[in-house]
What we know:
Elements (H helix, E strand, L loop, with lengths): L1 H21 L4 H8 L4 H19 L6 H16 L2 H17 L5 H13 L3 H14 L3 H14 L3 H10 L6 H13 L3 H18 L2 H17 L3 H14 L4 H14 L3 H11 L6 H13 L3 H14 L10 H9 L5 H14 L3 H13 L3 H12 L6 H13 L3 H12 L2 H4 L1 H8 L2
Amino acid sequence: MKTIYSLLAIVLLFSCNTKADKQITKATDYDVFLTSENNNYTNALKEVIFWTKKLKSTPGQYPYLVKLAGAQSQLFQATGNIANLIKAEEHLVALNEKTKNTKSGYLRVLARNYISQHRFKDALSLLKQAEVLAEDLKSTQKMLFDVYMELGDDEKAKHYLGQIVDFNSFDYLIRTAKWNDHKGNLTAAIEYMEKALQKAEASKNKDLMQWSYTNLADFYGHDGQIEKSYNHYLKALSLNPDDSYAKKGIAWIVYSHERNAEEALRILNAITKDYNAPDYYLLKADISEFLNDEAGKEAFMAEYKLAVKNKGYGDMYNAYNVKLYAEEKENVDKAITMAEEEVENRPTPQSYDLLAWAHFNDGNKEEALTIVNNHIAGKTFEPEVLYHMAEIYKANDNKEKVKPLKEELITATYELGPLMETKINQL
Length: 427
């Protein structure tokens, strides 16, 4: 009996230590940011009012349109309200019309707006015009790299990355980090991102520092360095208490790593008091499902579907919609059509994955496998895509290809979330 009690004590101690090891976050670290005033919104609104008045009093000063568009973009970042991003676009279109598309800088700023709207082909058209004008050519080449990456044209993306090589440049380092992450070399991606952060900190540019902290936090999370990820989200919030992305990152750690779903929901609810984007509803629905709260899940899904009916979002939520509709029998045809459009607009491995997954859920396992073999396998390392591939291989009795994917996916459960753990184990 004494031996049994000793074993029980050891098991209990191990269980407690394991739980303690998982606990990284502290509400006392981030609560102050959940209750802070949305100063970003207040400041951006003041800027909109100021530049609107300036433009009205001197309508011939069309450069004011850049300032006004910038203020509207800041409002979008502060609130998630797509109307502000569309308004910024209107100002920038008017600006380029007045200058007859002859200013590279104005073309680039409109292209940046289109990138935010996932209108990558429109952005590319503007950047090609800016490239011909050749004003501040390096800035145009940097954005051409960004757009070709989004469009899945690795050859052209690599070409433009080669045009901007400068290991002392923050802009080059962050793009090299992105390129290495895309190619599956996360270690190198982290190294380049850490060097970029050093540049940002040396410059004392708070915007660059905040951006670097959140992006490095993402990389650390992908690499299983959860505590580092958490600390970098906190660093971003220390610079900008209104950084909804950083708060969402902390909510994900609380949910996926610590499995504290109630606390994760509390954080998300605090964020969405001031900031609203449709994908937050999907995350809340996911957490509700984990909590076996079917009513909560359905309510959040309904809110998401209502939100994305707003035509202003355009193609921004196509990927989310395809994955959602693919698993609803009554909407699987819509998922296939939407996935085909996404492939047409943006022929990346991720877009082809949407199409393969939609066909798979429609019972077309052979068509799904053909798409995987021709357009996805070996071309992306995204865990969600790898999971879809594994399910498609399994359905087509390609068990030898499922095993290595399953082994890799087991190490990616943090990225995929708690609900995926059971599905991965069943592969």
